[in-house]
Amino acid sequence: MSYTRRNFLRHTGVAGLAATQLGWFANGAQANAQQDYCAMVCVLLAGGADSFNMLLPYDQDRYDQYATIRADLALERAAVTPLNYLGAGGARFAVHPGLAEVAQLFENGDLAFVANVGPLAEPTTRAALDAGAARLPLGLFSHSDQIAVWQTAAAGERVSTGFGGRVADFLSGQYNTGPVSMNISMSGTNLFQTGTQTASYAIDSDEGVRSVAGYENTDTDVFTRSLDRLLALDYADPFRQTYAQQLRGSIDAGQELAAALQTAPPLQTVFSEGGLSEALQQVARVISARNLLGAQRQTFFVTIGGWDHHDEVLNNQANMLPGISRGLSEFHAALVEMGLLDAVTTFTISDFGRTLTSNGRGSDHGWGGNSLVMGGSVNGGVIYGDYPELVAGTELDLGRGRFLPTTSVDELYAELGLWYGIAGNDLDMVLPNIGRFYTPGDPAPLGLMA
Amino acid sequence: MRMLKWLSIVSVLVLAACGGGGGGSGGGGNPPGGGSPPGGGTPPPEPTRAELQAAARFLSMASFGPTLADIDDLAREDIDTWLTRQFSTAQSRHLPVVQRYALEYGADVTMDPPPGLYRRFAFFEHALNAPDQLRQLTAYALSQIFVVSDNVDALFIDPRALSSYYDMLAENAFGNFRDLLLDVTLHPAMGFYLSHVNNGRSDPVANTFPDENYAREVMQLFSIGLFELNEDGSQRLDGNNNPIPTYDNQDIREFSKVFTGLSYGPEQPGGGTFFGSESRVMHVPMEMFDAFHEPGEKFLLNGAVVPDGQSGMQDIQDAIDNLFNHPNVGPFIGTQLIQRLVTSNPSPAYVARVSAAFAGSGGAPRGDMQAVLRAILTDPEAQSGLRLREPFRRYLAMNRSLHAGTDDSTVPGAGFVAQFLTQQHVLSAPSVFNFYLPQFRPAGPIGDQGLTAPEFQITDASTIVGMTNLVAYTLYAQQSIDSPDGFADITLDLAPWEARAAVVEDLVDDVDLVFFAGTMGDGLRQVLLDAGNEVQNDLPNRTRLVLYLALASPDYAIEGN
């Protein structure tokens, strides 16, 4: 078997401090105590996932169109997993063979797709684009800008706060009492969870919460007392100030979070090793400790990298998609175990979809792509948005099968925001551009969330 | 598990501060410097404290970590002389080190652990011991601009790919930027990473097109960036006060035609090659196969046109020229090199001076790397630039300044513990966008002042504690530091430090000079003195405790003032 870096980093033998169980809470009691808990889990597939191979047309005519435009990137029709959903004009769809669990969740009504969604600065037509009259997202087709815009939902400008951060700014005080940020990241700093008042708290997806070596909470410990003194010094420059604040805050919040995690009841659901499963297992652990953290609203952020498949789309997807499917399915099981399936909504985002046409076994940067949304509050088993006609030269094709999105990131996030408890009139506090796409008081833009 | 073991060791050692009475006497002496020369004649004057501090400050920027001996040597001459000598010091190559390990331990990529480890060993060995420190460090800085990474498994397991790539960067570090850009383009590790190896011409029958990956990133990241820049790094604005993009998607499609037809070179000189080969020969440049190169004209930037009928390699040369001569390169690359070497927030005037050096203002040709490096390192602003030290460089500095080594001359540091704790290791970034973006601005006091601080992008609750623990791990690990089983054990040589620790002030003075260039704040100093004095009758633990606090402190985490 070929050796992977992921394997090796794990086998270095750097194991975390195991969580010990100091107390038990009956699951039932917890569920009753927390009726109004809500959490969003954002899974970023970094690099631009080729999502037209994750969700593809299945009825023969549309499949043939797909196969034509995709050339050597096309999946075999006999290999894909058809979905029961029937779209407009007799359209049927299938998912990639590596997404078996995702298909099952879809059929169970706990998962939906949003088709051809992407960043838009305003509702955009081909005519306006061709006339040079359309406001466009900045840095279209570039990883760094598009990955940012998916997190900020502010397509026409570069801003430094993200949807999850603005949501936390807006309502954390109303719902949460604990000292740890309501925005927890498994993947370090990120724009999605950054607000003006809110910063994310990062934990390691393998090791969980880290504690400082040698730091104990006893007065006789010279290292502890010395470090405390150091972190309380006045620093003249903003760099040292920031570092000291961060280290102090990380130690303090870490102790709270570690204590909560140790006390929370352990989960029975088994998660696979590594990847999305490992990250979502940590998310589930933190969710299980939400009462101890005084959290009624939380967001979580996970990055899974490596999707920039300019080469070997078919092989890469075959290797990588099962891990995504498995992770989502295991997380779903953990939510069921906790009685929180309706309370937690998980969704995928990515820099962009990719070109429908091939560069010879690979695809290049596109624009519109397909996202999935999972949770008990999702009106599942449906494909929302407008799945485009996969034919070269159509109105939505901007060349090489790069599709103009027909649903904006703003509309997807508006659905989530409304479900999360933000009133229609307040949506523009967390989605500055939503007014171009949605009027408060109207029915929700997609009908995605119950 | 190794981590749990050392964690408990640290707790025991740090708690062993039971005190007897007494205390060290005061009076910091002079740190050990050079001795008197043998024989007759007047010995040269000892360097002043100010000279030592200036030397330490410079070496913390221009090497992987100063030692007391390095500092003393530099304090006795001057920076220009040091630079000139470094520019002509022979290159320490990584590939021969890799080959040495391969001979001894094997090179089969399916081995466990894989031989790709050897390139990490080679890097660590040279970072710690190579005399051509500035060349190695410049290659390190370039590796964060011209990013390839072992986060792709093929580059993780292969021993030659990234060691050869690093050698190529180091070869070009003191040469010309144009040659660097060409060599990066033709290196198979880059060809594999950004998928232009075996990138074929358009095929209308198969409905395939040239891969756009390298065309995009060579512009966005390796030469000109997204927006037109003035010489001082500021964005040029159009009539509506909007920034001006340097290229669009159509330009990328044109450039993508240029980077077609390349495949792997031969394993041995004169050996067979063919387009489409999966040989993954990673230590020689890629070769051009004109039959698979996109024919026809290609429209480059600023109206340049590559004519139909040229060889593929000529097309590439023209494209490289087109990018190299773009006015953006000086400020775009110059600003990033300043950030990698000196400070996160150079003034526009500083950037302009470096851009001018790049453009050949000093008489050197356009793109002369020595002129650029001299301009960066000797600029007046270089004396006081502020930035958060990269965690990986903190780790390297600790090991170099504290004389990490083994019984032989090898230093097989894999860096897995460091990487696990801090998410950073050389040539191991999560994507071609490196570990952090040059324009990253953290919220809070830094962002409020409109400053950028790229290294804060990988500083979060998990990695900031991780970095702290990495300091502890390095200082207190009784066994080998981050060296896998079966390879020589790496340990620090703290004896010289312990020898000075009988008087806590002396130890703190040394720490101040070597790690802080004499700028240690009074607050930290007092904490170190108090902590050191609490540890009685135990010089090893006193030394470690003082070092742990100093190297984990916010004072040290930030370089400059």
Describe the structure.
The complex is a heterodimer of chains A (450) and B (561). Chain A is α/β, with parallel strands linked by helices. Chain A contains 13 helices and twelve strands. Chain A has helices at residues 5-11, 27-33, 60-70, 100-107, 126-130, 143-152, 163-175, 222-232, 238-263, 275-288, 313-338, 409-420, 427-430, and strands at 38-45, 55-57, 81-86, 92-95, 111-118, 183-185, 201-202, 297-304, 344-350, 369-374, 383-385, 407-408. Chain A starts with a helix and ends in a 20-residue tail after the last helix. With 561 residues, chain B is an all-alpha fold. In chain B, 48% of the residues lie in helices and 2% in strands. Chain B has helices at residues 2-15, 49-62, 68-75, 79-88, 95-105, 117-129, 133-142, 153-157, 161-172, 177-186, 188-193, 213-220, 249-258, 312-324, 329-341, 348-359, 369-378, 391-401, 416-422, 445-448, 461-476, 495-500, 504-516, 522-534, 539-552, 554-557, and strands at 262-263, 287-288, 298-299, 305-306, 387-388, 558-559. In chain B, the strands form three sheets. Chain B has a two-stranded antiparallel sheet with strand order 1-2. In chain B, strand 3 and strand 4 (305-306) form a beta hairpin. Chain B starts with a helix and ends with a strand.
> Oligomeric state of the chains?
heterodimer
Q: What's the order of the H and E elements of chain A?
A: HHEEHEEHEHHHEEHHHEHEEEEHH
Number of strands of chain B: 6
> Which strand order do you get reading across the main beta sheet of chain B?
1-2
Radius of gyration of chain B over all CA atoms, rounded: 25 Å
Largest interface: A-B, 89 and 103 residues
Judging from the principal axes of the Cα atoms, what is the shape of chain B? globular
Helix/strand structural class of chain B = mainly alpha
User: Considering DSSP H and I runs of 4 or more, what fraction of the residues of chain B is helical?
Assistant: 40-55%
Query: What's the β-strand tally of chain A?
Result: 12
Mean pLDDT of chain A: 91
